[in-house]
UniProtKB/TrEMBL annotation, chain A:
<keyword id="KW-0560">Oxidoreductase</keyword>
<dbReference type="InterPro" id="IPR002880">
    <property type="entry name" value="Pyrv_Fd/Flavodoxin_OxRdtase_N"/>
</dbReference>
<dbReference type="InterPro" id="IPR050722">
    <property type="entry name" value="Pyruvate:ferred/Flavod_OxRd"/>
</dbReference>
<dbReference type="InterPro" id="IPR002869">
    <property type="entry name" value="Pyrv_flavodox_OxRed_cen"/>
</dbReference>
<dbReference type="Pfam" id="PF01558">
    <property type="entry name" value="POR"/>
</dbReference>
<dbReference type="Pfam" id="PF01855">
    <property type="entry name" value="POR_N"/>
</dbReference>
<dbReference type="Pfam" id="PF02780">
    <property type="entry name" value="Transketolase_C"/>
</dbReference>
<dbReference type="InterPro" id="IPR022367">
    <property type="entry name" value="2-oxoacid/accept_OxRdtase_asu"/>
</dbReference>
<protein>
    <submittedName>
        <fullName>2-oxoacid:acceptor oxidoreductase subunit alpha</fullName>
    </submittedName>
</protein>
UniProtKB/TrEMBL annotation, chain B:
<dbReference type="InterPro" id="IPR051457">
    <property type="entry name" value="2-oxoacid:Fd_oxidoreductase"/>
</dbReference>
<dbReference type="Pfam" id="PF02775">
    <property type="entry name" value="TPP_enzyme_C"/>
</dbReference>
<protein>
    <submittedName>
        <fullName>2-oxoacid:ferredoxin oxidoreductase subunit beta</fullName>
    </submittedName>
</protein>
<dbReference type="InterPro" id="IPR011766">
    <property type="entry name" value="TPP_enzyme_TPP-bd"/>
</dbReference>
<dbReference type="GO" id="GO:0030976">
    <property type="term" value="F:thiamine pyrophosphate binding"/>
</dbReference>
<dbReference type="InterPro" id="IPR011896">
    <property type="entry name" value="OFOB"/>
</dbReference>
<dbReference type="GO" id="GO:0016625">
    <property type="term" value="F:oxidoreductase activity, acting on the aldehyde or oxo group of donors, iron-sulfur protein as acceptor"/>
</dbReference>
<keyword id="KW-0560">Oxidoreductase</keyword>
<feature type="domain" description="Thiamine pyrophosphate enzyme TPP-binding">
    <location>
        <begin position="56"/>
        <end position="204"/>
    </location>
</feature>
């Protein structure tokens, strides 16, 4: 256990309630003033497969999972071997398991961890309406030293709507779980929280919820949705919430429909978005090109998972970078952004809506499973308002309206249906300034240049990247890898090293001058990413002049990039 | 169609642009364009409140030949674009137009689900049983033994698709067939289709004189249907399945529920955010 955080893994059969119990632990810890992170690892089965929840709690904001686990609570051993590689244990770890579950897998035993067997199943059977996961919650609460009242509030909040009997059984399970741990020496796992008062300055959020909120904050009022793991929670969060703010979500028949529906709604003047994952993004590509050509703003949030094809739907990988950057046919300038933390899913999505509307272009916003489906306790995000909006055509202009007029910025006023005098036909065919189809070289050249220029000339301000630190060694990364990289950098600095971390938020259009400036004086450059073919490294090589000696730490999913590995790369390079 | 601000004294020609269509001389689509603009003049809706949405193909060029708001989108996706537009902007009159390949083949899934969803819009399919823009290949409505295409030299060997029966089964609320050779009749049906709530499916037999010259015969073989419009889906289904595809008229006007989500603000974004507090 590191001095400031404690890490717990809870495992059990899928459907046993592992995720529910883990979320309650996280929320209860949050009520005591702790920060935390909860990641999930599941198989494709709805029930009966494997499920593991990983929690890390700390007194300071938690960027990523730890390199090892302090505590593992195993509700059963059924499928644990399938993700044992994701749960590094050692001699200082404590494993709590059921007395009747049989012998633990040899790989777990080999870790040298201390085992404590408790009569979990036996106790559950003695409780009317007892549920194993609530017992596990009590066990964990006792091990972590989370006070009773914090747990009770969280359990009540979650179970009250299911009736008094369920609530009572749940609380009884927690109490019974607590008493099983009595007498065990677990004081070393207790973290001191600040208070038990309800706090409005801390939020408990998933990346997918934050992407949904970012959409709404940015002004999105139409969403078309086709379910896909691991993006579905964005759409499920938006469905009830969008309608409260006067918007609407339509469930489409497929991703081809959802992308084209949002183009239609945006043509009508309503800021529009969809969310998907790799296979869905692949289906949407043709219509994203239509958005480019017709200059109709849209946002596509793509929550990456293991690929190609159906790949590993429930696990994280950063391997959709190539399709997001290069997947469109023709010369099709578009914007690609990436969130670099769970809370940043909010900012990046909101900013992406703003960019789409301002530039009348499609934005592909990349997050991934580990950001989207993980929960974090964070400081309440600041209110950020972007003032510019879509430039629209006002009726009764003196000169005849030209939808695709060549302007200084490359952005031309968009007429919204209902506006007299603005009637035009949006077209995926190349067109003249009026929108009339044209296959002429002059129109093609002019319109290509206009669409490229409007993206290239915009000043994206400070938001293009997150930059911290100084020094001759730089780590350049993106997306969810920023979490472990930041933690590694913090540890390296604590050990006396100077280094800088650059995490790109704006991937396209490439910010060549800005990155070169940020890398000035760098002698060694470490690229960290989660893909097999080093997609991010190749992208950097294609668009930027990288200084100094370069190394790449790249690995595909599903294993997360860990801060200890990044630190090792940094420290071994001297 | 819900009540829109009326504008009187517009004639059919006021809805036409000055672009010259890409269509061949003798193409049925010229007549459909005239029928559409006649219907719009009859409906007396302000030009700026109408949107014509299409996909790709000869007939899908139609938005540019009007002076209305329009979207010439990608192949097969017109109904999806139109659905997004109409749901987000229920105040607009939305017309979707295209061909048989665009609507029934590459766009077949959207066709089924647009019927099912029953959003208030009118879908005009100019059906000439051929892909004209790619120079004459078989479409889903081409007869199985049509062997004039280089792509299917022995005929398709596949039974033609039955668009109106599919539309009825899938849930469309208004089903009609027209003939481009009867522009006034087609205009009347389009007017009726727009006025009827929900998804209105209008198939127009529109000859392709270039790749299906035998369709010139339609002026002799197409006839008015010998039925009265029904709201009984089972009667309409039996009639449609027995018909040879050359009878015109309004076969079905239903009372199926229309998809029309409310767009009413009842909370602020700040209200939504309260849920996240620990």
């Amino acid at each position: 256990m590191s001095a400031e955080t404690v890490s717990i893994a809870i495992t059990g059969a899928g459907g046993a309630g592992v995720m529910t119990a883990a979320q309650m632990v996280l929320n209860a810890a949050a009520r005591t003033g702790l920060y935390g992170l909860m990641a999930r690892s599941t198989g494709p089965q709805i029930r009966g497969g494997e499920a593991a929840a990983f929690i890390r709690l700390g007194a300071k904001p938690v960027n990523c999972l730890d390199n090892r686990f302090d505590v593992m609570v195993s509700l059963d051993w059924l499928n644990v071997e399938r993700f044992a590689a994701e749960i590094p244990l050692d001699a200082a770890s404590l494993i709590v398991c059921d007395a009747d579950a049989g012998p633990p897998p040899s790989r777990i035993v080999a870790s040298g961890a201390q085992f404590v067997t408790l009569p979990l199943q036996q106790t559950v059977k003695s409780l009317p309406g007892g549920r194993l996961n609530m017992l596990g919650l009590g066990v964990l609460a006792a091990i972590l030293g989370v006070p009773d009242d914090a747990i009770t509030v969280v359990v009540e909040k979650a179970l009250r709507k299911r009736g008094q009997a369920v609530l009572d059984a749940g609380l009884a399970g927690v109490t019974a779980g607590r008493s099983l741990v009595e007498g065990l020496d677990v004081g070393r796992f207790h973290l001191q929280g600040a208070s038990t008062a309800a706090r409005t300055d801390r939020w408990s959020v998933s990346g997918n919820e934050m992407a949904g909120l970012g959409a709404v904050r940015g002004g999105i009022r139409f969403v078309a949705a086709y379910p896909i793991t691991p993006a579905t929670e964005i759409l499920e969060w938006l469905a009830p919430n969008l309608e409260k703010v006067g918007g609407v979500l339509v469930q489409a028949e497929d991703e081809l429909a959802s992308i084209n529906m949002i183009i239609g709604a945006s043509f009508g003047g309503t800021p529009s978005l969809t969310a998907t994952s790799g296979p869905g993004l692949a289906l949407m590509m043709e219509a994203i090109g239509l958005s480019v050509a017709s200059e109709t703003p849209i946002v596509v949030v793509n929550v990456m998972r293991g690929g190609p094809s159906t790949g590993i739907p429930t696990k994280s990988e950063q391997s959709d970078l190539n399709i997001a950057l290069y997947g469109l046919h023709g010369d099709a300038p578009h914007i690609v952004t990436a969130a670099n933390s769970i809370s940043d899913c909010l900012f990046t999505t909101q900013w992406s809506v703003h960019l789409a509307e301002q530039l009348q272009a499609p934005v592909i916003t990349l997050t991934d499973q580990s950001l989207g489906q993980s929960r974090a306790v964070i400081d309440r995000p600041a209110d950020i308002s972007f003032f510019s909006k879509r430039e629209t055509f006002a009726a009764a202009a003196a000169t005849p309206y030209q939808r695709y007029a060549i302007t200084g910025s490359g952005v031309s006023a968009m007429a919204i249906p209902g506006t007299p005098g603005g009637e035009y036909v949006a077209d995926g065919l190349e067109h003249s300034v009026t929108g009339r189809p044209s296959s002429g070289a002059e129109d093609h050249g002019e319109q290509l240049a206009k669409r490229a220029r409007k993206l290239e000339d915009l000043d994206y301000g400070q938001y293009w990247a997150e930059i911290e630190g100084e020094g001759p060694l730089a780590v350049v990364t993106w997306g969810s890898c920023a979490g472990p990289v930041r933690e590694a950098a913090e540890l390296a600095r604590a050990a006396g090293m100077d280094l800088r971390v650059i995490s790109l938020r704006l991937l396209a259009p490439a910010q060549t001058d800005r990155l070169e400036q940020a890398l000035a004086g760098v002698e060694r450059l470490l690229v960290v990413e989660q893909s097999h073919s080093r997609q991010f490294y190749r992208y950097l090589r294609a668009f930027y002049d990288l200084p100094g000696e370069i190394r790449v730490f790249s690995r595909p999913g599903p294993l997360p990039i860990r801060s200890s590995e990044v630190l090792q790369h940094i420290q071994s390079w001297s | 169609m819900s009540a829109l601000p009326e504008q009187t004294a517009l004639s059919a020609s006021d809805f036409k642009s000055d672009y010259r269509p890409v269509w061949c001389p003798g193409c049925g689509h010229y007549s459909v364009l005239s029928s559409l603009t006649k219907a719009l003049a009859e409906l007396a809706v302000r030009r700026e409140d109408i949107a014509v949405i299409s996909g790709i193909g000869c007939s899908s060029r139609i938005p540019a030949y009007t002076n209305l708001y329009g979207f010439h989108s990608v192949h097969g996706r017109a109904l999806a674009v139109a659905t997004g537009l109409k749901v987000a902007r229920p105040d607009l009159l939305v017309i979707v137009a295209g061909g048989d390949g665009d609507g029934y083949s590459i766009g077949g899934n959207h066709f089924i689900h647009a019927c099912r969803r029953n959003v208030d819009m009118t879908y005009i399919v100019m059906d000439n049983q051929v892909y004209g823009m790619t120079k004459g290949q078989a479409s889903p409505t081409t007869p199985a033994d049509w062997d004039k295409s280089k792509l299917t030299p022995h005929g398709t060997g596949v039974s033609p698709f039955h668009p109106l029966a599919v539309a009825l089964a899938a849930g469309a609320n208004f089903i009609a067939r027209c003939f481009a050779g009867d522009p006034n009749g087609t205009a009347r049906v389009i007017t009726e289709a727009v006025r009827h709530p929900g998804f209105s499916m209008v198939q127009v037999l529109s000859p392709c004189v270039t790749y299906q010259p035998e369709q010139r015969e339609w002026k002799n073989t197409v006839r008015k249907a010998d039925i009265v419009t029904t709201s009984e889906a089972d009667l309409a289904a039996r009639w449609l399945m027995a018909d040879d595809g050359l009878s015109t008229g309004v076969m079905y006007k239903g009372h199926r529920p229309v998809y029309r989500p409310e767009l009413e603000e009842t909370a602020s974004v700040a209200d939504l955010e309260k849920w996240f507090a620990v």
